[in-house]
């Protein structure tokens, strides 16, 4: 291996004050919350909103808007890490644990992965363990206010320990599967797991 | 596959205030399609790195990868590329990235682009010229002023429809594109049109609404959006 080249004259910003909070290659976006999307922002009315858990489950379950919000929920504060290199620290949300939703559907023993679907057709694949054994939520509030459409409202998936493209906006379906099936960005060369602390941005990253 | 390639800055121009246009000679560049982007990584002496994504302006036929960098307030990477970078400097490049916001070079397509979002449309127009498929591509480029429209001369010369919203352009009074200005462009393309929209959050909302009102199915609209909310 040859040494990676140094860019003459590049110093970079002062190193982060809290390096324990910023994964490699990320910068602190402060109060800004960038919006990136691959499709037009859908306006999903809450009276037409639903979330279904299906695939390899004992019984398919669907929540409507009132049903979701009647589930036990919590307030949480997490750090967001986008693959485009911004991070937003200490962002507050309100939502339901994905593990609690899945428990009501009863994952079958051979379920190993989940394909999260958006009402737009966008998908992201995740190992099931990343939503069962790590904290993950379906959220409907951010920073104390209803989640806005551009950030995925009425409700989005939130898997904060992975890059944010895994946290599917306008989430409508969690499909449990016995294999990994690449989602929207993953088919385009992005990583199947996407752990920011291991800098798993693209297919082939360790 | 993730692969960082060494690249050298082959040219550097400042087409207007706040913009720098760079051409990079990338070792073993595998080629790209119009609409794709690259990730540029800068490395300091102590190993610290910073990386950002940029849309590609060049056509697949061009040997160098061209990109446009807008100076952002306190921009760590854009600031370096504006003020410090010189021809011959080395950076690293990963890419090309993206398989969604990509034009195949022949299917009927309309690109509705705003501000610095014109960059992928420049690549599409150059590719269409190279392939002789200009009839399959229409571009609507929007900016507040002529000065704020990157590649303004090239866009006009290539046949793009240009709308300025804050100043008159030749005979056209300042305004966003009117429906009756967009409709004939779509009519010329037929029924099976792929739409590409690139720009700020607000621009994308306007452009997708306009296309929907013109009967373009939402499922055929592909978006590249950049913007910030507090």
Helix content of chain A: 10-25%
The major β-sheet of chain B equals: 6 strands, antiparallel
In CATH, the homologous superfamily of the largest domain in chain B goes by the name: Nucleotide-binding domain of ferredoxin-NADP reductase (FNR) module
CATH topology (level 3) name of the largest domain in chain B: Rossmann fold
Whole-number total of structural domains of chain A: 1
CATH topology of chain A: Sulfite Oxidase, Chain A, domain 2
Give the distance, in angstroms, between the N- and C-terminal Cα atoms of chain B. 34 Å
**What would you report as the Rg of chain B, rounded to the nearest angstrom?**
18 Å
CATH architecture call of chain A: Alpha-Beta Complex
Name given to the CATH homologous superfamily of chain A? Oxidoreductase, molybdopterin-binding domain
What can be said about this structure in brief?
By secondary structure, chain A is mainly beta.
Architecture overview:
The complex is a heterodimer of chains A (206) and B (230). Chain A is mainly beta and 206 residues long. Chain A has one domain: Sulfite Oxidase, Chain A, domain 2. Chain A contains four helices and twelve strands, in the order ββββαββαββαββββα. In chain A, the strands form two sheets. In chain A, strands 1, 5, 6, 9, 10 and 11 form a six-stranded mixed beta sheet that branches. A five-stranded mixed beta sheet of chain A has the order 4-3-12-7-8. In chain A, a hairpin with a 5-residue loop joins strand 3 and strand 4. Chain A is globular, with a radius of gyration of 18 Å. The mean pLDDT of chain A is 92. The two termini of chain B are 34 Å apart. The longest helix of chain B is centred in the middle third of the chain and has 13 residues. Chain B contains five helices and twelve strands. Chain B has two domains: 95 residues, Translation factors (Elongation Factor Tu (Ef-tu), domain 3), CATH 2.40.30.10; 118 residues, Nucleotide-binding domain of ferredoxin-NADP reductase (FNR) module (Rossmann fold, 3-Layer(aba) Sandwich). In chain B, a hairpin with a 2-residue loop joins strand 1 and strand 2. Chain B is of the alpha/beta class. In chain B, the strands form two sheets. In chain B, strands 4-3-6-1-2-5 form a six-stranded antiparallel beta sheet, with helices on one face. A five-stranded parallel beta sheet of chain B has the order 9-8-7-10-11, sandwiched between helices. Strand 2 of chain A pairs antiparallel with strand 12 of chain B, so a sheet runs across the interface.
């Amino acid at each position: 291996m040859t040494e990676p080249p140094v860019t003459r004259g590049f110093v970079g910003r002062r190193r982060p004050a809290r390096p324990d909070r910023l994964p490699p290659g990320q910068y602190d976006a402060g109060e800004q919350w960038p919006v990136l999307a691959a499709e037009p922002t859908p306006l999903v009315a809450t009276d037409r909103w639903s979330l279904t858990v299906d695939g390899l489950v004992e019984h398919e379950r669907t929540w409507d808007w009132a049903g979701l919000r009647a589930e036990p929920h919590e307030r949480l504060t997490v750090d967001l890490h986008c693959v485009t290199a911004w991070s937003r620290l200490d962002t507050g949300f309100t939502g339901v644990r994905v593990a609690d939703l899945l428990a009501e559907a009863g994952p079958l023993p051979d379920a190993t992965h989940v394909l999260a679907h958006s009402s737009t057709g966008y998908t992201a694949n995740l190992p099931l363990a990343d939503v069962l054994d790590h904290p993950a939520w379906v959220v409907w509030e951010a920073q104390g206010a209803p989640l806005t459409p551009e950030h995925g409202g009425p409700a989005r998936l939130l898997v904060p320990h992975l890059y944010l493209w895994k946290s599917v906006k306008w989430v409508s379906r969690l499909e449990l599967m016995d294999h990994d099936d690449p989602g929207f960005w993953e088919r385009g060369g992005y990583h199947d797991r996407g752990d920011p602390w291991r800098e798993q941005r693209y297919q082939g990253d360790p | 596959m993730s692969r960082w390639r060494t690249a050298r800055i082959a040219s550097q121009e400042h087409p207007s205030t706040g913009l720098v246009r760079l051409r990079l000679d990338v070792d073993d560049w595998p080629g790209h399609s119009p609409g794709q982007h690259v990730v540029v990584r800068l490395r300091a002496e102590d190993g610290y790195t910073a990386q950002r994504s940029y849309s590609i302006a060049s056509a697949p036929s061009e040997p160098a990868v061209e990109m446009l960098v807008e100076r952002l307030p306190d921009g760590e990477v854009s600031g370096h590329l504006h003020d410090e970078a010189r021809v011959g400097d080395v950076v690293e490049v990963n890419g090309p990235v993206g398989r969604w916001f990509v034009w195949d070079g022949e299917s009927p397509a309309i690109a509705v682009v705003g501000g610095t979002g014109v960059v992928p449309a420049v690549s599409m127009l150059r590719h269409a010229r190279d392939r002789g498929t200009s009839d399959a591509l229409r571009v609507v480029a929007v900016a507040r002023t002529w000065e704020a429209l990157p590649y303004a001369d090239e866009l006009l010369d290539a046949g793009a429809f240009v709308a300025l919203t804050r100043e008159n352009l030749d005979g056209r009074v300042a305004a966003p594109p009117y429906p009756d200005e967009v409709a004939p462009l779509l009519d010329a393309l037929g029924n099976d049109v792929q739409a590409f929209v690139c720009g700020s959050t607000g621009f994308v909302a306007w452009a997708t609404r306009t296309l929907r009102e013109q009967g373009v199915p939402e499922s055929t609209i592909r978006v590249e959006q950049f913007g910030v909310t507090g």
